């Protein structure tokens, strides 16, 4: 990029030049390139083949070669004899997209070949046509005759892309960017070779000075492109991006304002709903069914629940302990009873005097009775009688009786304690159940439900209103807007400074060429950078759009030749020097007028190096008489050109 231009932009935008360059390149904005000579495009051969169908029968075989710079014509004595088709096929091959080629003719075609030179290099685009679809290639032909394939295609889209890439690169053209679409919905569109090639074709109603598309200021951009005004491309690129970013900023601003309005409306609505909810809440009694009362009852249930549970658990444990003590006391009581019965039975049996054996009824002798008294041996079994055991039985009975008394007392105390805990547990359980009933009743009451709903509504609306109190966010300005604006301003300054007297020089050339081509009483022309052409004709101010169709055609040709001449003169033009003119006789009132125009075009072509003009006309006699048969491809009578 130009150093001074870039430094000025970086300083104004407050960034480093390297950062500025990188950001602008990402946006497709580059500084003006050094001046370079324009390339010359010259058609050398047009050829195509096919087979007519329907009512028109016969083979198609057209081959027109060895064309050079100068004025050439394809002509017939009647209309609808194929002259426009030749030009349309030429345009199809050059553009990769048909312009006005009729569907039936396109279906008849089977093969097309167009050879052309860019400066001294020969190129050939050749393709077969299968059911209207092209498939072929673009090659470069060496001096030796060998070829190098540059690209190939198998569809309409591929063909157009192939020719667009080639022509834009080879002719050193820059794509034209513009904003297009409805307000606030415009998008960046890029016009390439298909649009720029309109500057080479002169047909239709000649409503545009350059090309045939008015949208997005395309004629003005084509004018600046083909004349090569310094910095024009950079101004165009930066202007398009600037409008795109300004649209983004405008949409963001509108969105922010709309959001702010929506927020204000929402706040007002929420505040109104909040006041209404507060009135509903205030209409309820302050105690009955309030959330506070419900919380109190819930708290009471929560407080009583662990108390009742603890008492129930203690009561259960006390009951278990009392039962165990009662069991032990009962066991001691049985032991006392058994011991007492044993002592009584022992004393009873020891006090008896046996007479005979209780088993065999043998009588007890007196000697045994005496030994029992003397030796304490049993008169029946002779075993020793345990006097000590009988004496200790009384002592054991006393101990067991004391233990029984202690166990019974403990069991009585435990049972009494368990009863006390049982009474307390019952009271606590009753209180808990009562609290639960009150809580359930309060929670199920219609008043509580309504009040609770009112409280929730108030809380929700207060929260929503609080959220809406946040300050509105400012719209986000695209970060590159300042940089791109600075780039556009600096490029525009350089453009205006570099433009110099180019427009004045073009005006002089267009005026001279217009007069030479027969625009009657033309006194002054003023070409503006927006591709509008103001005229003074017969002493009266007028404009390009208000003159006759024939005069518009002459002025279009004059403007194109002027662009070519002044561009070559200044070493900055981009026009390739090819003009394709369809049916100029339709805009003329007599063959003499056509002959005059052709004569002047011949003179102009001789004066303008590299200029090639290919004309299609149905006035064969006037064309051939003026140009000569060697410069024409013609047919007579009702014959077709192909």
UniProtKB/TrEMBL annotation:
Residues 235-265 form a coiled coil. It comes from the Bacteria. Keywords: Coiled coil. This is Large ATP-binding protein. It comes from Rhodovulum strictum.
């Amino acid at each position: 990029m130009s150093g001074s231009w870039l430094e000025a932009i970086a300083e104004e935008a407050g960034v480093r030049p390297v950062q500025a360059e990188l950001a602008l390149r990402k946006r497709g904005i580059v500084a003006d390139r050094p001046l370079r000579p324009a390339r010359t495009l010259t058609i050398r051969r047009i050829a195509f083949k096919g087979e007519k169908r329907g009512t028109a029968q016969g083979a198609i075989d057209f081959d027109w070669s060895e064309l050079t710079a100068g004025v050439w014509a394809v002509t017939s004595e009647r209309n609808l004899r194929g002259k426009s088709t030749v030009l349309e096929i030429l345009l199809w091959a050059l553009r990769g997209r048909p312009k006005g080629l009729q569907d039936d003719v396109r279906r008849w075609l089977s093969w097309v070949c167009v050879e052309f030179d860019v400066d001294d290099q020969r190129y050939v685009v050749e393709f077969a046509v299968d059911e209207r679809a092209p498939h072929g290639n673009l090659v470069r032909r060496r001096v030796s005759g060998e070829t190098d394939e540059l690209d190939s295609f198998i569809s309409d889209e591929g063909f157009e892309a192939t020719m667009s890439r080639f022509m834009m690169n080879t002719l050193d053209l820059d794509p034209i960017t513009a904003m297009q679409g409805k307000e606030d919905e415009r998008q960046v569109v890029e016009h390439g070779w298909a649009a720029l090639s309109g500057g080479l074709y002169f047909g239709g109603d000649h409503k545009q000075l350059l090309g045939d598309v008015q949208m997005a200021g395309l004629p003005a951009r084509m004018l600046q492109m083909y004349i090569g005004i310094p910095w024009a491309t950079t101004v165009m690129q930066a202007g398009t991006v600037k409008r795109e970013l300004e649209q983004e900023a405008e949409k963001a601003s509108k969105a922010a304002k709309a959001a702010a309005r929506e927020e204000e409306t929402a706040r007002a609505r929420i505040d109104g709903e909040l006041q209404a909810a507060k009135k509903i809440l205030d209409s309820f009694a302050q105690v009955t069914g309030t959330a506070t009362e419900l919380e109190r009852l819930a708290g009471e249930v929560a407080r009583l629940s662990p108390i009742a549970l603890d008492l129930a658990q203690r009561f259960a444990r006390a009951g278990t302990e009392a039962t165990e003590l009662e069991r032990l006391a009962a066991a001691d009581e049985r032991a006392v009873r058994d011991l007492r019965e044993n002592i009584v039975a022992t004393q009873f049996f020891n006090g008896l005097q046996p007479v005979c054996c209780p088993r065999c009824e043998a009588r007890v002798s007196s000697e045994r009775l005496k030994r029992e008294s003397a030796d304490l041996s049993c008169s029946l079994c002779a075993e020793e009688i345990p006097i000590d055991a009988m004496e200790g039985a009384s002592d054991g009975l006393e101990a067991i009786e004391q233990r029984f008394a202690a166990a019974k007392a403990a069991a009585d105390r435990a049972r009494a304690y368990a009863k006390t805990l049982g009474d307390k547990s019952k009271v606590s359980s009753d209180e808990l159940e009562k609290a639960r009933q009150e809580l359930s009743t309060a929670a199920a009451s219609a008043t509580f439900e309504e009040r609770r709903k009112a409280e929730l509504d108030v809380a929700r609306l207060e929260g929503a209103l609080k959220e809406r109190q946040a300050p509105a966010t400012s719209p986000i300005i695209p970060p590159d807007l300042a940089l791109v604006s600075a780039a556009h301003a600096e490029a525009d300054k350089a453009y205006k400074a570099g433009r110099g007297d180019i427009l004045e020089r073009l005006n002089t050339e267009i005026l001279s060429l217009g007069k030479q081509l027969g625009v009657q009483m033309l006194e002054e022309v003023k070409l503006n950078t927006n591709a509008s052409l103001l005229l003074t004709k017969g002493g009266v101010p007028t404009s390009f759009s208000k003159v006759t169709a024939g005069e518009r055609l002459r002025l279009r040709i004059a403007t194109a030749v002027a662009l070519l001449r002044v561009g070559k003169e200044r070493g900055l033009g981009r026009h390739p020097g090819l003009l394709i003119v369809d049916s100029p006789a339709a805009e003329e009132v007599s063959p003499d007028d056509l002959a005059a125009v052709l004569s002047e075009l011949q003179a102009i072509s001789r004066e303008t190096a590299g200029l090639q003009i290919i004309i299609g006309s149905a006035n064969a006699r006037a064309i051939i008489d003026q140009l000569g048969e060697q410069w024409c491809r013609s047919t007579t009578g009702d014959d077709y050109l192909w």
